[in-house]
């Protein structure tokens, strides 16, 4: 006779087995569906419906096993082969995948990029239009993907580091919508070949030092496009090469695991325990997922048969993860052949329906636009003097085109309008012109909007609060202004963190943070290693999670080390997600004049051309810098603030409202009014020009001096041209190379503001020499614009 408790155990065991069986079959079904999505998507590219495709086939089982332990609040920071991760976590659907493949600009169809990114570039929102952070703890989050290989690594460090801060900094406990006591993991995925990038190694080293909850999954398919692993990685194995990073009981470092990408049960067993350990202890881990295959090769741009041997191709067919999982299911009697065949057919059908639905949603509005165009253009053919043949052929060809694009409609409409410009006053032609203008503007908005934030998230909408000075305002060194400012800021804003080389213990090389680590704690104001790339990544990830990092590059010359994530990730983020994600990172650095080739850089042309999408602030002094920090911290936009390196020990008056006054962005300041010539500059050269103006005034030349204050944005109210209308002469001065920042300002005023209309003499630019600045005071004098240079150019202009 069976005892009641024994019977209950048997029933519970049977139910547990059924749940297990159901879960396994669901996982296999998803693997089959994702594989079919890859196969269908490749065909869509080859038939011309899509431009390019790169897929995750061969990685389905490993990604499903990983996704089982991806929880609410976690972040994914991966790359463009993670489609199965997106499907398994619910971040994306196959239909959305196809919409992105077709470049559908409707965010209801492609909610990750609105048609701006190629397939498998996923993103989730973090800030709403009212400036409120979403409850990230209740979401499965994905940082916006980008194509540069290993580009996801630096920001992964910051995403994981934020969890450490949320767990260890008491003042962050109140932000329960952003973190659940730091339990969140950053799941980072990367292809094996991309581990050769410096981004990977710097990130692994930093994560090992910081001990942050980062789970790095390396999908190893043996190749980097056509280059085999033996030419990529020391010892032919990234886990073997990283052995020195393995954590021991007496050291920091990484836990390292090796699994087979076709071994469903083995991966689930390892991942479950290992990921829980990361969550509990914040010890990072690397999972080397080996023996991954690529059934369709690298991408739609070529065939892997060109570089893989017959033996390798045969092995890949045998060790295909879906085939191996199928065999495992049968061997363990989890399903019979008939059940699996039916399941596979259903998965295939779902993928096909996703493709069909996505294509229909993409095509229907375009066909409607074709009909609208035809309805307006057809009557024009009947007008006297009209080119009926052109119109009728154009309409017929568009209507017969099974896969028209928006550009086809616009190009043909523009051609008809151009051909019939003699009839431009006819109401029918005017109607077509009006339709064309509206359609063009609408589509331009679809593809050219959201480079910057809007509404309350925009720094442009922060109210101006002037600096106040009273009878008790004292003169202090510039660095003391910043020190007092940062002290007040960190006292009242618990979300603000500062970090960088020498920022913590000694308070930065110019003493802006002197004594503040001791007051506010090592977590709030911290030192880092010499690793500019991941300092930027640390800030990016923290900003994506609701913190307000001030990430420091010690000298502007070293921004090049960290420029790639700022340009490819931060600056493009608003645009490429069509306003979905925000990254309110502030990069603090110092530059312009000092001593020597690598400590007096002013590469403003490089910065403004590579960082469109960020705000670029160039304060002339430290009071202005503090006001700009205040402005930026009230918005949700990324920015770089470049303090004047030789201004820290110059005396400035201390405002009484240091913590609350703001400097508006894009509003130049007229520092001195004049009538003979307008001189436009910024940063450290402002003081050079001010000194030159004294001598020029004695020589009878009245100069109007304008400090632009910010380069991105630049003079949003076009006020500089108002000065030019008065003086009819203009000189642009900075210390970038020729054709750099001065050329940019020249174009903004002379071309965009139509300043050329008010010129009596040719406009001038005065910049530094084309080479790096030489060392020493004489080197500075001959390498960068000096007082005598300014006087000489102005006097030449006055004599024309």
TrEMBL record:
Keywords from the named record: Oxidoreductase, Thiamine pyrophosphate
Cofactor requirements of the protein: thiamine diphosphate
Gene Ontology BP, a term: response to nutrient
Keyword Oxidoreductase applies: yes
Top-level taxon in the UniProt lineage: Bacteria
Domain called Transketolase-like pyrimidine-binding: residue spans: 476-650
SUPFAM superfamilies per record: Thiamin diphosphate-binding fold (THDP-binding), TK C-terminal domain-like
Enzyme Commission no: 1.2.4.4
Classification via CDD domains: TPP_E1_PDC_ADC_BCADC
Pfam family, one: E1_dh
EC class: oxidoreductase
InterPro entries documented for this protein: DH_E1, THDP-binding, Transketo_C/PFOR_II, Transketolase-like_Pyr-bd, Transketolase_C
SMART domains (alphabetical): Transket_pyr
GO molecular function annotations of the record: branched-chain 2-oxo acid dehydrogenase activity
Purpose: E1 component of the 2-oxoglutarate dehydrogenase (OGDH) complex which catalyzes the decarboxylation of 2-oxoglutarate, the first step in the conversion of 2-oxoglutarate to succinyl-CoA and CO(2).
This protein's name: 3-methyl-2-oxobutanoate dehydrogenase (2-methylpropanoyl-transferring)
Organism: Chitinophaga silvatica
């Amino acid at each position: 006779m069976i005892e009641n408790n024994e019977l209950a155990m048997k029933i519970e065991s049977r139910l547990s087995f059924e749940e297990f069986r159901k879960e396994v079959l669901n996982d296999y079904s998803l693997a089959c569906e994702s594989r079919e999505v890859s196969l269908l998507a490749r065909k869509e590219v080859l038939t011309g419906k899509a431009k390019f495709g790169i897929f995750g086939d061969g990685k389905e089982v490993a990604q499903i096993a990983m996704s089982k332990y991806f929880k609410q609040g976690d972040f994914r920071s991966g790359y463009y082969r993670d489609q199965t991760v997106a499907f398994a976590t619910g971040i994306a659907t196959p239909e959305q995948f196809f919409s992105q493949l077709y470049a559908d600009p409707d965010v209801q169809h492609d909610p990750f990029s609105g048609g701006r990114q190629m397939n498998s570039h996923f993103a989730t929102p973090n800030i709403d239009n009212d400036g409120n952070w979403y409850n990230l703890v209740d979401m499965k989050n994905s940082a916006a993907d980008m194509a540069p290989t290993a580009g996801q690594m630096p920001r992964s460090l910051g995403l994981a580091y934020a969890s450490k801060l949320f767990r260890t900094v008491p003042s962050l406990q109140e932000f329960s919508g952003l973190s659940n006591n730091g339990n969140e993991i950053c799941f980072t995925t990367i292809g094996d070949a991309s581990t050769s990038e410096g981004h990977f190694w710097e990130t692994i080293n930093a994560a090992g030092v910081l001990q942050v909850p980062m789970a790095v999954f390396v999908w190893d398919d043996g190749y980097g496009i056509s280059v085999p692993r033996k030419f990529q990685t020391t010892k032919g194995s990234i886990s073997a090469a990283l052995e020195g990073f393995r954590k021991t009981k007496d050291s920091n470092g990484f836990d390292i695991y090796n699994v087979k990408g076709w071994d469903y049960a083995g991966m689930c067993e390892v991942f479950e325990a290992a990921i829980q350990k990361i969550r509990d202890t914040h010890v990072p881990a690397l999972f080397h997922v080996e023996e991954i295959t690529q059934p369709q090769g690298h991408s739609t741009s070529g065939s892997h048969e060109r570089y893989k041997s017959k033996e390798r191709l045969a092995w890949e067919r045998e060790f295909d993860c879906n085939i191996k999982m199928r065999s495992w299911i049968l061997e363990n009697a989890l399903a019979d052949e008939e059940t699996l065949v039916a399941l596979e057919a259903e998965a295939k059908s779902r993928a096909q329906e996703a493709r069909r639905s996505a294509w229909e949603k993409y095509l229907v509005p375009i066909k409607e636009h074709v009909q609208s165009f035809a309805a307006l253009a057809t009557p024009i053919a009947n007008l006297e003097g009209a080119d009926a043949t052109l119109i009728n052929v154009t309409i017929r060809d568009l209507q017969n085109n099974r896969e028209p694009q928006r550009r086809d409609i616009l190009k043909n409409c523009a051609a008809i309008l151009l051909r019939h410009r003699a009839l431009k006053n006819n109401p029918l032609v005017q109607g077509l012109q009006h339709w064309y203008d509206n359609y063009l503007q609408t589509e331009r908005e679809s593809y050219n909007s959201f480079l910057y934030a809007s509404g309350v998230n925009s720094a442009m909408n922060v109210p101006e609060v002037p600096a106040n000075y009273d009878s008790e305002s004292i003169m202090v060194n510039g660095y003391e202004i910043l020190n007092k400012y940062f002290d007040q800021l960190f006292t009242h804003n618990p979300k603000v963190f500062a970090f960088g080389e020498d920022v913590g213990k000694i308070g930065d090389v110019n003493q802006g943070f002197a004594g503040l680590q001791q007051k506010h704690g090592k977590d709030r104001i911290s030192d880092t290693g010499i690793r500019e790339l991941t300092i930027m990544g640390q800030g990016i990830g923290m900003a994506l999670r609701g913190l307000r990092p001030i990430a420091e590059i010690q000298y502007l010359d070293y921004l090049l080390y960290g420029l790639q994530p700022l340009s490819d990730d931060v600056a493009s983020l608003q645009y490429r997600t069509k306003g979905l994600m925000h990254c309110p990172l502030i990069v603090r650095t110092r530059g312009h004049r000092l001593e020597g080739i690598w400590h007096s850089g002013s590469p403003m042309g490089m910065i403004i051309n590579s960082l469109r999408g960020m705000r670029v602030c160039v304060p002339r002094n430290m009071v202005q810098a503090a006001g700009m920090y205040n402005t930026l911290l009230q918005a949700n936009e990324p920015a770089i603030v470049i303090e004047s390196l030789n201004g820290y020990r110059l005396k400035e008056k201390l405002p009484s409202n240091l913590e609350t006054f703001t400097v508006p962005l894009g509003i130049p300041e007229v520092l001195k009014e004049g009538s003979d010539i307008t001189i436009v500059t910024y940063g450290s050269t402002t003081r050079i020009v001010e000194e030159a103006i004294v001598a020029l005034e004695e020589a009878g030349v009245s100069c109007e001096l304008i400090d632009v204050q910010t380069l991105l944005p630049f003079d949003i109210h076009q006020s500089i041209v108002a000065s030019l209308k008065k003086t009819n002469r203009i000189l642009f001065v900075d210390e970038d190379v020729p054709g750099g920042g001065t050329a940019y300002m020249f174009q903004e005023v002379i071309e965009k503001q139509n300043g050329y209309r008010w010129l009596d003499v040719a406009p001038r630019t005065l910049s530094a020499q084309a080479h790096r600045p030489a060392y020493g005071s004489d080197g500075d004098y001959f390498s960068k614009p000096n007082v005598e240079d300014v006087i000489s150019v102005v006097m030449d202009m006055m004599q024309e």
